[in-house]
Amino acid sequence: MAIDTSVFHAGSRALRVNPGGSGYDWRMLSVPAPGSKFWVRLYVRSSVDIGQAEHNAYFQAMTGSGEPNEGHNVEVAEQYCQIVLNLHDAVVLSTGGATQCGSGGVKLPKDQWHCMEAYFDGTKGDVQVYAGGTKIIDKTGWDKLDYKSFSFGYLGFHGPARTMWYDDVAVAPERIGCAP
Fold it and tell me: What's 12's DSSP letter?
């Protein structure tokens, strides 16, 4: 990871997550969650489309301290050529999606900034994910979890290798919203 002064959404710099090798690639930063219910807002950019065929993750609510193999991780990820939720390989598809590529679902084009928001309510097992202010995933009554941390970056299980950028990341007990 590095601070990038040439590609940023606002201000004069962003976090660049450099591509790793093939196979498993954990490149995440973790911060404490403000409780078992919280919102996140972040601007994300990728050198390849977000919504590839194989499982990879961009950010997640975690019951552990941020260590990848500790606790339960509710990932905002990609699989089946769309953005999905993934918890221990239980997958929730995005709006209009099916479990095969080319059948719908939400993906985000490469080389553009995208405002993403998510609401994690571990007390009820609810997760909502938004892209550009539009709800793309709404899962209720999933596993009830006691979130302790939030991680963002790139968790590559199957690739392809890519460069990711994050800017204006915020974690709060209330919705932050996307700036105009």
Answer: T
